[in-house]
Sequence to fold (498 residues):
Amino acid sequence: MAVEFGVLVNNLKCEEVDLTEGRGTSYYGCAHHAGDPGCKVNIERPFQFHTGRSDCTEHDAEFPYKATKEEKHPSAQDAGRKTIEYFQTEFPDLTGRDIVALMGAHTMGQPHIDISQIPYQWTSKGGRMFNNDYYRNIVGEDRWFFKAEPHNQCEKIGNAFGEKPKAQWLAHTRMTSVNGGPVFWIHRNHVCPACQLEEALEGMPLALMDWEKDCCHNKPEGTFCRPDRESADMEDDDLNTGCERMRFISGADEIAINAEMGLYKQFEVDDDGVIYGCRGLEIFNTTMRGTKARTVWSVPPGEYGPYEPECEKQTIQHPAGSGEPLYTIFEEFASNQQNFVRDFIIALEKMSANGYPEGLTLAPDHWTDVSCPLPAERDTPFTCYKAEAAGSGEPIIIQTNWEHAEGFVIQQDPETGNPFMGPADMAAGPTPHQQWVWSESGTQLINLGTGTPLLLDGYSSWTIESFEDWQGEHTQIRSAYDNTKGLDAWRAKANQNK
Fold:
């Protein structure tokens, strides 16, 4: 369900549809590739869910909701070699391609520092969308910078010449554990200050500093900030200072853990959690074992940092001899979103069936011909339905006896298919778009004009109920899902359709 929701949000963001107005943070985020041909996600076939697992059959006597079977988790601190060894032992049917595809789940959600000691986000302003952004990030593609504030903007920030900026990964620890870890990787971009947002940021914690404003205003014509190089094709010889510099997305930093970065970059981690094996990681061996340092950043010996470690790409093949080094799969998924989506579904199905070679029971199809209309506003249910055929009953008109909406009926707009309550010429006879018939199951109201069910605020199944109050007896169409919700004409006076 999370994947289906993430695909919906991603594809609407690709069309640059504003989903946050009135709907809250569930639809929050920015699409890095809006307008690009490959922005939208297309799931070629439904995920085949199986039932019948019975892994946890023994339970704690005092706390019966707790299973006594010990769970076996991989370590977030392990590098690529140990991560593959874990999967080889616990999920022997998964290939390297499957494992890399499953890592793509980190395109959504975020870690929680109170649980894992890992802060920040997997993809900045992208945690509600399912796409291949995660892989584009890991392989170090040039990437637009979205400042965390204001939270509802998606202003693309680049370098001084307006180009999509270069990016790099740093190894880092905040020394929050007794062994000086955990080590994680943090992403940064070679960008200008957020000059376009100078006014909007005033009074906010991330407001531009005076020196940044100077970069924005004292610049050559045609540039976005004062460049630190003469032309776009020159390299910046100091990535940590100047107007153009490598910047973290303060408040929404993008991170990766060793277990996933180790499938793309070749490094090692010892039993104490100390990372080593690349030029630039030497500092962790001395500083993490000490007690005085508060943070550690990757930096080459004798240099002032931080800088990206010089790690080779991960060449492990799983199974051995498969001809697919792990790093090549990351790069394939970064360049081909459809391949990632295809392989993710296959890998998730294999993982779900792990340990049951005799097979499980295929669950009912929850995908084919199922629609999930977008809720109109915050805190309204996100319900999905499978459209039914109209039944054989007589068509009905849904109208009210309220004097302020006399002659108004519920109908569908012929062009948009959206329902509304409006006037009908009953003398001439209602149009097909003003008539409804119960579906074959008797739960949906099918419009004769469009052949689609009545959808209001996420509700699609209905029932007729009679009740009595101080005003007398009433008959009302109510939601079969939540009978506290019913069709009411009082909004019709203001031409509203909720």
Residues 337-352 form the longest helix (16 residues). The longest strand covers residues 183-191.
